[in-house]
Design a protein that fits this description.
The structure holds 2 protein chains of 2 kinds.
Chain A (H helix, E strand, L loop, with lengths): L15 H4 L13 E5 L14 H5 L6 E4 L2 E4 L9 H5 L7 E5 L10
Antiparallel strand pairs in A: 1-4, 2-3
Chain B lengths: L4 H26 L15 E6 L8 E7 L2 E7 L31 E4 L2 E4 L2 H15 L3 E5 L5 H14 L5 E3 L6 H11 L16 E5 L3 H4 L1 H12 L5 E6 L1 E2 L1 H4 L3 E4 L4 H15 L5 H7 E5 L10 E2 L1 H11 L7 E3 L1 H8 L4 H8 L3 H12 L5 E5 L1 H4 L4 H15 L8 E4 L6 H7 L6 E2 L3 E2 L3 H11 L14 H8 L11 E5 L3 H4 L3 H4 L10 E6 L11 E4 L8 E4 L4 E5 L12 H14 L37 H13 L9 H6 L3 E2 L3 E4 L2 E3 L31 E5 L2 E2 L11 E6 L15 H6 L5 E3 L1 H6 L7 E6 L2 E9 L4 E2 L3 E5 L28 E6 L13
Parallel strand pairs in B: 6-7, 6-19, 8-9, 8-15, 9-11, 12-27, 13-28, 15-16, 19-20, 20-21, 29-34, 30-32
Antiparallel strand pairs in B: 1-2, 2-3, 4-5, 4-21, 10-33, 12-14, 17-18, 22-23, 23-24, 25-26, 29-35, 30-34, 31-32, 31-35
Helix pairs in contact in B: 2-21, 3-21, 3-22, 4-15, 8-12, 8-13, 8-15, 12-13
The chains are: A alpha+beta, B alpha/beta.
Chain lengths: ~110, ~850
């Protein structure tokens, strides 16, 4: 694949910018997680024009913006945690949750 | 007990979250839900008000202090400006105090190294150097200096040392807005206020990106839209930004296209006879740069324009009177088709914009900031935007008028009002006028002739002279820099600042809080207290003067900038400098206690024995009455979240602020029955000036070798040179480094993809940066954007030093550049070579 053919915004600045990201997960052996954006902590929900997680998500289409509000597309999210690492909100608005719900079976 | 850094971050985060909830509570309140408490309730934390340290919006924060540390920040719900909300920077503002590398000890350069020294020695070195330098000394302060700091520096320089080489970094930021206001209305600063954003139905953004630069103001409008108000956003600019995403119309223009666009609106208003005849008749005169009987070009290049201005001399800013007929003829050139050719904006869109102004039922607010001010024709374009509002009568009604924004928290308060510029005196007066000098000398009790009538060097000239060898005419040999970072923010820094490194006889004194590009070349570093570590007063872009008290002790031996200025002044007095005595032989900065005894506040241990800020502010306040810019007394400011001048005493002890200047009913200085009265009109007839200014080309145009146009600016996460915000972990992580933003087509032609390391080249130098394509913003074809916050990639090494001939403000938005891909992939790149 030629370089010109894929000028995707998802590879953005993985030089210097990527290097400074605090990596929060997943480590090997961790269970698979997904990011969830919590509206009550997210600056974008207050019309404060934040889109850092969307800009820095390395997976095309995993975070989408609608009228300035970001949300995670669970099927596309790999659980890398970059969005949590870069979130500048005073209380981190990104929550990493288990990818699969734990279903407890009642004993017969 | 000292709070650990981690605890601090947690508490700051926790309380800021309450701030976020607070903004929602306002909406909940309408539905009958009980309001939240004004401040988060945390045991042992005391709360006090302060304006935010960052931009010119002037939000108020509640600062939570525990054990002499700022531990929490919350939006101030009583503040009119932000109503409890803060932006991403504001929520973290407390952490600017606690970066790990705060400067805590004075340092002098000995054999090339900065070595710690004692304060007494530092003050003595500074004073002796200033004494020796005489007229070769320059003082460079800031739009982030507090009003008392600015006033102390101003009085020391102009009243004490008879030296007018005092400048502030607002020259790089606001100067064109000032000359615009002066030449249109005869007096500086906006007539309207932020309240207009709550009532306008059309918002026009002239090269302005408030979504990132003034997020709180933008959120005021977005919030209205969310509640169902119809507000039409028209964005005029060279770059598709976050603001553009929310805009209804985007007028994509070429550099300097704003001149042609505004002239075209005027042409359309006249051609369609939709201008406001009554308003123009009653309130406006017409003016042009020069007598139209001389050859008058409709489109002019920068050098020719500068030559015209030079020819006109000092009176050039005020031009010559012309008739309506002459004006009509001059603007008739700018038909929509012609303006399309000049600006790149399609004629249909220009007609649409003219129709918006023609519609009397609309309420239109124009916003602008650096896009129009950092412009080699900055004064001209400021005049032209005032023009279209005046001509169409969209002026002086709530929600209907032009509003210029500032980038710094006291660019208005300290620089424009105190007049810390080479030509100015406090209160909007100038050194060139004898009557103004006499007044100042009277207030300061100085012998006649003490204030030097000759304006000093403007910022670019001052640093050019500092960086030029003495034997080649560089006649500034000492500069004292306070509260700003010219090493990173001057244009063309290699020539204008960094060249000083080779000149051993030049001396740079820097008062700073952190190591910066400026302290790197400093010969004397004075560690400074910042923000709530000292008392202060700021003035924001809607004329709001805001006061705060010292809340925590500065670290180590860091001390107030104002104290530093006054301690040096005292040392100069002790060394026998004649200028530090008034005409009765008294010390120029004498402050008495309640019993009339002199307070030795120049000794640091006595500095807070008396409120020096209050003494200086009330001394300064007398100046503000002369041009009807009356600021409130200090004690009134203590009670309020800022008051907008002119503040007048309606009955004893009761003060009233002014929201709309020159408008009867609100501005107390407008005569009864006048309606609107421009009482400082340059033509003395209470009328504003409608200017003809020709379209001008940028000073440096792209060509074959350098085919792109380089624009610089800010990002939402960082403020100016990043000295403060790059030390806040959350902000640094969110935006850790500079980049070059490119148009995808320009990138494709050069074989550049996202994340590639590229080289940006201009005639001044080159810089390697990663490329960002289709990112946060998208420049149009032929334009690239680089933010200037990053100390490790200083784009101002490459920018152009050309200035507006009136305002002397440099143009950071237009210079010729080329971008090429570097052969090696970036070492951190994830790009896998296949």
């Amino acid at each position: 694949m030629s370089r010109q053919a894929r000028p995707t915004r998802r590879d953005v600045l993985f030089g210097r910018l990527g290097a400074a990201v605090r990596r929060v997960g997943p480590k090997q052996g961790d269970e698979l997680k997904r990011a969830v954006i919590q509206g009550r902590h997210c600056l974008a929900y207050r019309e404060l024009m934040c889109s850092t997680c969307y800009e820095r998500c390395p997976e095309e289409g995993a975070i989408v913006m609608d009228r300035g509000i970001p949300s995670v597309v669970a099927d596309r999210c790999t659980g890398c945690g970059d969005c949590q690492g870069v979130c500048p909100a005073p209380v981190n608005a990104v929550l990493m949750i288990r990818a699969q719900p734990v279903i407890q079976r009642s004993k017969p | 007990m000292e709070l650990k850094r981690r605890e601090f971050i947690q508490i700051a985060a926790m309380t800021a979250a309450t701030g976020l909830a607070g903004s929602m509570a306002d909406r909940a309140r309408a539905s009958g839900a009980p309001p939240l408490p004004d401040q988060p309730d945390i045991p042992g934390v005391n709360w006090e008000k302060a304006p935010c340290r960052f931009c010119g919006t002037g939000c108020h924060v509640q600062v939570g202090v525990k054990d002499d540390k700022v531990v929490a920040i919350a939006g101030d719900r009583e503040a009119d400006v932000n109503k409890g909300l803060l932006c991403v920077k504001g929520y973290h503002v407390g952490m600017i105090l606690y970066g790990e590398d705060r400067l805590t000890k004075p340092m002098a350069r000995r054999e090339g190294q900065l070595v710690p020294i004692e304060w007494d020695e530092a003050i003595d070195i500074a004073a002796r150097r200033i004494m020796e330098s005489g007229s070769k000394f320059g003082f460079y302060i800031s739009g982030q200096s507090t009003i008392p700091e600015g006033y102390a520096a101003q009085k020391l320089m102009k009243g004490g040392l008879s030296n007018n080489h005092i400048e502030a970094n607002a020259r790089l930021c606001m100067a064109s807005a000032v000359t615009g206001f002066l030449s249109t209305y005869g007096v500086d600063e906006p007539a309207s206020c932020y309240d207009d954003l709550d009532t306008c139905d059309t918002l026009i953004l002239w090269g302005n990106n408030p979504a990132e630069m003034h997020p709180i103001l933008f959120s005021r409008v977005m919030d209205r839209q969310a509640r169902g108000d119809k507000v039409t956003l028209i964005d005029i600019g060279t770059r598709h930004t976050r603001t553009t995403e929310r805009a209804d119309h985007f007028l994509k223009m070429q550099g300097n296209g704003d001149l042609a666009i505004a002239n075209c609106i005027a042409q359309q208003l006249i051609e369609n006879d939709t201008y406001d005849h009554a308003f123009v008749e009653k309130h406006c005169n017409f003016r042009a740069d020069r007598d139209p009987s001389k050859a008058f070009d409709s489109v002019i290049d920068h050098d020719t324009y500068v030559a015209h201005v030079k020819e006109a001399g000092a009176s050039g800013l005020f031009g010559e009177a012309i008739s309506f007929e002459q004006y009509k003829k001059l603007v008739s050139y700018y038909t929509p088709e012609k303006a399309e050719e000049l600006s790149g904006v399609p004629a249909d869109q220009l007609r649409m914009l003219a129709d918006v102004f023609a519609d009397k039922s609309k309420k239109i607010v124009s916003l602008w900031c650096m896009g129009m001010n950092q412009h080699t024709a900055g004064t001209a374009v400021n005049n032209l935007v005032h023009n279209v509002h005046l001509m169409s009568g969209h002026w002086g009604k709530p929600g209907d008028g032009p509003q210029s924004l500032t980038g710094q928290p006291a660019a208005c308060g300290t620089v424009r009002e105190v007049g810390t510029l080479a030509h100015a005196l406090p209160g909007g007066r100038i050194v060139a006028k004898e009557a103004h000098r006499d007044h100042a000398e009277g207030f300061w009790n100085l012998p006649k002739g003490r204030v030097n009538p000759k304006p000093g060097y403007h910022t670019v000239k001052m640093f050019q002279m500092l960086s030029t060898p003495t034997d080649q005419g560089g006649d500034i040999d000492t500069v004292w820099v306070q509260v700003t970072n010219p090493g990173q923010t001057l244009p063309n820094t290699k020539k204008l600042f960094k060249a000083k490194a080779e000149l051993k006889d030049k001396f740079l004194i820097v008062s700073e809080v952190y190591p910066t590009a400026t302290t790197e070349l400093a010969d004397l570093v004075l560690p400074a207290a910042m923000w709530v570590e000292k008392n202060g007063i700021y003035g924001n872009s809607e004329r709001r003067t805001q006061q705060w008290f010292k809340m925590v002790t500065p670290p180590g031996e860091a001390r107030d900038d104002c104290w530093q200025t006054l301690a040096v002044a005292r040392r100069l007095f002790e060394l026998g400098h004649p200028g530090l005595k008034d005409k009765d032989g008294e010390y120029l900065f004498r402050i008495n206690d309640e019993d009339g005894k002199e307070v030795p506040y120049w000794q640091w241990e006595h500095y807070y024995d008396v409120n020096v800020d209050k003494a200086l502010f009330d001394d300064y306040r007398r100046f503000t009455f002369m041009k009807h810019k009356n600021v409130a007394p200090y004690d009134e400011l203590v009670k309020h979240r800022g008051l907008r001048w002119p503040v007048v005493e309606t009955e004893p002890g009761k003060f009233r602020e002014t929201r709309w200047r020159f408008v009867e009913g609100d501005d107390p200085y407008v005569e009864k029955g006048a309606g609107i009265q421009f009482y400082h009109s340059t033509t003395k007839d209470h009328k504003a000036q409608l200017w003809f200014r020709p379209h001008q080309w940028p000073a440096e145009m792209p060509d074959d070798a350098l085919p792109l146009n380089l624009v610089t600016g800010r990002v939402i996460e960082h403020w100016h040179s990043g000295t403060m915000t790059m030390r806040i972990p959350q902000l640094r992580r969110a935006m850790p480094g500079a980049y070059v933003e490119m148009n995808p087509d320009d990138a494709r032609e050069r074989g550049i993809t996202n994340g590639d390391m590229v080289r940006v080249t201009t005639r001044r130098g080159e810089l390697n940066l990663p490329a960002w394509i289709n990112g946060r913003a998208n420049p149009q074809r032929g334009h690239v954007f680089v933010p200037f916050f990053d100390e490790s990639a200083q784009i101002n090494d490459l920018t152009l030093g050309e200035i507006d001939p009136f305002s002397k403000q440099p143009d950071y938005k237009k210079c010729a550049a080329e971008v090429t891909r570097l052969d090696q992939p970036h070492p951190y790149s994830r790009e896998v070579v296949q």
